[in-house]
Amino acid sequence: MPHIRLARGIDHNDIRDIYLRAFPEGECKLIARLALSLLSEESNPETIGLVAEADGRVVGHVAFSPVTTDGPSHWLGYILAPLAVKPEYQKGGIGSALIRSGIEQLSIRGVDAFFVYGDPEYYGRFGFTAEAAGRFLPPYELQYPFGWQAMVMHETVSNGQTVKLSCVASLREPALW
Ligand SMILES: CC(C)(COP(=O)(O)OP(=O)(O)OC[C@H]1O[C@@H](n2cnc3c(N)ncnc32)[C@H](O)[C@@H]1OP(=O)(O)O)[C@@H](O)C(=O)NCCC(=O)NCCS
């Protein structure tokens, strides 16, 4: 199994390399820039990055950043973005280990809901559903609305009302959505 640890500043080049290689040409630079920006994102509560090490190298990365609502101030949500594993290390459980580790660590802190914008076929296996995301409006209009998913841990946003989410500065880029 890969070794999962918190990402640090010294992982900068490895993280950039993962995204440049894992994502297609047209979007890899945008996503690499997002990953690096989140590495130094100063949010409260904190943005966390995790890296996976295998064969003594950093081969996978994920970031989780907080999202807020204009509803109850004690509500705590996090969005998983971005995620990538070096091509030659894919399909070995590293992506799953990164996701599960992040969710486990953040759940201990009382996170009420996790969000992700990605392929439902992949994220569905971790418990994310489009249905759970239904009453949370993403910060920007989505290019692929079917990719908007959530996993609600605690039902705390009141009365089933629709709430609009705000995200950290690194994610405030319409092209990412
Ligand atoms: C998505 C990604 C992070 C998964 O990492 P990984 O280490 O290969 O994941 P795991 O080994 O835990 O899981 C692999 C499984 O997910 C499946 N999978 C990977 N990407 C998928 C996708 N987009 N849709 C559906 N299934 C997918 C694989 O086919 C494999 O299935 P299997 O277990 O039945 O063989 C990796 O494929 C990657 O970096 N892809 C390019 C970047 C990307 O798409 N990131 C996610 C953006 S939302």
Please report which band the strand proportion falls in: under 5%, 5-15%, 15-25%, 25-35%, 35-45% or over 45%: 25-35%
The total of helices stands at 5
Number of domains: 1
Q: Which CATH-level-2 architecture?
A: 3-Layer(aba) Sandwich
Task: Indicate the percent of residues in helices.
Answer: 25-40%
Structure notes:
α1 (12-22) runs antiparallel to α2. The chain has one domain: Aminopeptidase (3-Layer(aba) Sandwich). Strands 1, 2, 3, 4, 5, 6, 7 and 8 form an 8-stranded mixed β-sheet that branches. The chain is of the alpha+beta class and 177 residues long. Helices cover 27% and strands 28% of the residues. The structure holds coenzyme A (COA). One of its GO terms (molecular function) is acyltransferase activity, transferring groups other than amino-acyl groups. Keywords: Transferase.
